[in-house]
Amino acid sequence: MVSRPEKEAYYLNIAEVVSKRSTCLKVLIGAIIVKGDQIIATGYNGAPRHTRSSLEHGFCLRQKLRIPSGTQYELCRSVHAEQNAIINSARAGVSLFGGDMYIFGNERESGAVVFAFPCFICKKMIINAGLDRVVVSLPGKERFKIFRVDDWVREWQEQDILEDSVRYGQSG
To answer: Are strands 133-137 and 100-107 parallel, antiparallel or unpaired?
Structure first.
């Protein structure tokens, strides 16, 4: 009997390969968007096109400025993987509406898989793009967790954005 990975694992494996293009010195993140069982866009965390990355500079600006993780994203050289996947879809003229995003992350130095939950900015972009589900990598044997975007919207309708039950930087 031939063993085939389930769809979520299959697409996360592809997102993992995409993450290897990351130019972040700390965490490698890859995102893909799938619609109708077809990959329509990919993205990784990296510097804007035609600009110098942290790898090229040889240091992380946020670390140099001692900015705590999960804060002041505007001072990061990189565009997040989720943002790049959405942007790349727009550049190609492809609608994301009704698609799913798969996000894989791991630490550059140790290779440890991370809980690749999107930050608030990416979460808002995912909602407005009309995506249905977000599947994120998890450390450990579970490997991934699935979130429904409608649940995020409902949660924010009932309470403030800062009262999210799941947030970037928390464990899965």
So the answer is: parallel
Distance, in Å, from the CA atom of 11 to the CA atom of 13, rounded to the nearest integer, reads: 5
What pLDDT sits at residue 1?
84
pLDDT classification of 162: cutoffs 50, 70, 90: low
Alpha-carbon distances of 89 from 57, 79, 84, 93, 152, rounded to whole Å: 28, 15, 8, 6, 22
Cα-trace Rg, the chain: 16
Q: Where do the DSSP E strands lie in 53-119? A: 100-107
Amino acid making up residue 32: I
**CB-side neighbour CA atoms (13 Å) of 67:** 13
Terminal CA-CA length for the chain? 33
Contact 24, 108 (CB under 8 A): yes
- Alpha carbons 129 and 121: distance in angstroms, whole number: 12
Is residue 127 a contact partner of residue 133, using CB atoms and an 8 Å limit? Answer: no
pTM (two decimals): 0.91
Could you give the CA distance from residue 76 to residue 153 in angstroms, rounded to a whole number? 27
pLDDT value of position 20: 97
- Among residues 75, 78, 93, the alpha carbon closest in space to that of 31 is found at 78
Contact 108, 26 (CB under 8 A): yes
Mean pLDDT of 28-56: 95
**Residue corresponding to tokens 């998890």:** 138
